[in-house]
Amino acid sequence: MLTLSRRVWNHVYVNTYQDVTALSAGVVRRSTVLADGRDLIYYDDPDTSLGGERAIDARELDPRPATSSMRQDILTGDWITVAANRQNRVMMPGAEADPLAPQSPTNPSEVPSRYDVAVFENKSPAFGPALNEAIGGAPEAINPTRGLDDLAALGLGRSRSAVGRCEVVCFSPEPSGSFGTQSVTRARTVIEAWADRTAALSALPGVEQVFPFENRGEAIGVTLPHPHGQIYAYPYITPRTTRVLESIDRTAPDMFQRILEFEQRSERVVLAGEHWSAFVPFAARWPIEVHLMPHRHVADFAETSAAERDELAHLYLRLLRGVDALYETPTPYIAAWHQAPVHVGRDTVRLHLQLTSPRRAADKMKFLAGSEAAMWAWATEVTPEQGAARLRDALQTVEL
């Protein structure tokens, strides 16, 4: 069992090696490291009640796991990560053993200090570093990718090291909740963290795409009830985005602008602001599906303006609370922020949210079975127009 050194609790030994940077909207970033060398970044709210000092991580930790491998499926060209280290990750612990809560004398969690928003490298990642600094810089990624052309080639028995990064984004130190339960100020801090981490992860060698997302609810497969999301930095362009790039090639470079204008003229719009619009897409797959898109072209969060981030904090919270207002109990969902790849499609693929839920009634879920799971051939039980009308009604009951 992990134990904490007593020195953490005497408030004398604090981490004096923080890299402190002021970001937009009054958010302050404080960068440090955990006991095994993983990065930890605190993002302080503009109205934070926290002091500037942060306790050190005095745990005695095992070395990081070796970087996972990935294998190519020759039938589709997809790369499948084999991450055996994730098999034994924490599953629905009680609040007293919450690994995302601030450390206490009885809970040697992942975050040493009280925080507003905290981001750290996942202890059980699907993608890992090229060098494992925790064991003296010994090479772990012995078979890294060799560029996009290499990844696109097909062959039997092809494998590569899964070089990249997986990060956890803690929205709050509280043990329960979701993004939608946060304040507008806290939502703005998380958005600033997404933008900051998108820029940092995009600069890492071998990273081809950065994906912030939130899984919410046990029906989705969530293993921790603590309010949090994740960011994956992939060593390849994901299959979904590859299909989008192909569609752009087959239609027009301004495909996303055309989608936005098409949807804005429809009855499927559910929310609209100066900089963002939310709509149920024309060909929605899921019983609940909403897309949220900026009005101008931006490739990722790092390219959004301060005004766009400010408005997003309000609109996104209202959207999530509207989804929860559809039923008497919270709705499970995946909130997927699609961003352009790091090196291609920057002028054509637009940042946007795709929020989806399998909930098709108060007590019914849509399960992916034969046709959808095996053949990727979808059928939906709720028309997009019906879904938009129900969500607009629910949004009328929401206040921030």
From TrEMBL:
Q: Which residues form the Galactose-1-phosphate uridyl transferase C-terminal domain?
A: 264-395
> Which keywords annotate this record?
Carbohydrate metabolism, Galactose metabolism, Metal-binding, Nucleotidyltransferase, Transferase, Zinc
Q: Name one GO cellular component term.
A: cytoplasm
One biological process term in Gene Ontology: galactose catabolic process via UDP-galactose, Leloir pathway
Where does the record place the Galactose-1-phosphate uridyl transferase N-terminal domain?
72-237
Molecular function terms, GO-annotated: UDP-glucose:hexose-1-phosphate uridylyltransferase activity; zinc ion binding
Alphabetized InterPro entries for the sequence: GalP_UDPtransf1, GalP_UDPtransf1_His-AS, GalP_Utransf_C, GalP_Utransf_N, HIT-like_sf
* Metabolic or biological pathway: Carbohydrate metabolism; galactose metabolism
Cofactors (names): Zn(2+)
Stored Pfam families: GalP_UDP_tr_C (PF02744), GalP_UDP_transf (PF01087)
PANTHER family named in the record: GALACTOSE-1-PHOSPHATE URIDYLYLTRANSFERASE
Record-stated family: Belongs to the galactose-1-phosphate uridylyltransferase type 1 family.
Q: Tell me what this protein is called.
A: Galactose-1-phosphate uridylyltransferase
Q: What is the lineage of its organism?
A: Bacteria, Bacillati, Actinomycetota, Actinomycetes, Micrococcales
